[in-house]
Amino acid sequence: MDGTARIALGSVVVAAAVLGLKFLAYLLTGSVALYSDALESVINVAAAVAALIALRVAARPADANHPYGHSKAEYFSAVAEGVLIVLAAISIAREALPALQSPRPVEAPLPGLAINLGATVLNGIWASVLLRVGRLARSPALLADGRHVLTDVFTSVGVLAGVLLASLTGLHWLDPALALLVAVNILWSGWGLVRESVGGLMDAGVDPQTETRIRQAMSEHAEGALEMHDLRTRHAGRVTFVEFHLVVPGTMTVQQAHTICDRLEDAIHEQIAGSAVTIHVEPQEKAKHHGVLVL
C-alpha cells in the first residue's frame, strides 16, 4: 500500500470516529442543526471509502486493456462524493423544514457542543493533512476528500455558534434555520466537486499558468529544432499528458532529433512531475509558422 492509499485508509478511520462523536452530540441535544452536521459526516465516511477504493484502482500499472493506466479512477471517486453530498443536503432539508415550522428547545447543549467541538478539531487537523498530501501527490481523490472535510469544519463551526446562540437567547427557530443553511452550503460544495471531476473525465486541459510554464520550457530547451505546434494537454488523475509536434530541419538525423526530444521531455518533467510527454517529429516543410518558436 503506497502513501496515498495509507492516507485514504486513515480518512476512513477519522471519518468514522468523527461520525460517532457527532451523532453522540446530536443524541445529547436533539438539535436539528447538529443532526445535519452528523449526517454530513455519514457522507464523509462513504466518500473516504470511495477514495480508498479509487486510489487502489488508480495505482494499478498500465495493462493491455488500459495502456494509459488507471489514474482516471480517482475522478469517479470525486464525482461519487459530489453526488452523495447532494443527497445529504436533500435529507437535511427534509428534516429541517418541519422543525422550522415547529421549533423545539435544545436540551443539554454544553456537553453535546463540547463533543461536537472535539470532532470539529479532529476534522480540521485531518483536512490539512489531506490537502497537503493531495497537492504533493497531485491526487484528485485526496484533494476532493480534503476540501469536503474542510467544508465540514467550517459548517461545524457555524453550527456550534448558532446552536449556542439559540440556547442562550431562546430563539429556537435558529436551530432548524442553521440546518437549512448547512444544506445549502454542502449542496454548493457538492456541485463544485462534480464540476471539477467531470472536467477531468472530459480530458480538460491544464490551467493557463501551467500551459505557460510548459511553453516556456519547450521554447528554452529545443535548440536545433525550428518550431513546435499543436500543443495539447489533458489530466488523468495525477498524470498530465502533454503532446505536441516538433519541426526539425529535413536533413537532421534521427539521433539528433531524438536528442532534442529527450531534452524537451526532461524540461517538461521538471515543470510537471509525473507528466507523460509524446512528441511527433516533422520535417521543416510541415512548419505552420505558429505555436512555440525556439529561443
Automatic annotation (TrEMBL):
Pfam families xrefs: Cation_efflux, ZT_dimer
Top-rank lineage group of the source organism: Bacteria
Key words of the record: Cell membrane, Membrane, Transmembrane, Transmembrane helix, Transport
Cellular component aspect of the GO annotation: plasma membrane
Biological processes per GO annotation: intracellular zinc ion homeostasis
Transmembrane portions of the chain: 7-29, 41-59, 75-93, 113-133, 153-171, 177-194
Example GO molecular function: ferrous iron transmembrane transporter activity
Principal location class: membrane
Domain Cation efflux protein cytoplasmic: 207-283
Record-annotated Cation efflux protein transmembrane domain positions: 11-202
Membrane topology annotation: Multi-pass membrane protein
Coiled-coil intervals: none
Localization in the cell: Cell membrane
Family according to the record: Belongs to the cation diffusion facilitator (CDF) transporter (TC 2.A.4) family.
NCBIfam families, sorted: CDF
Protein name: Cation diffusion facilitator family transporter
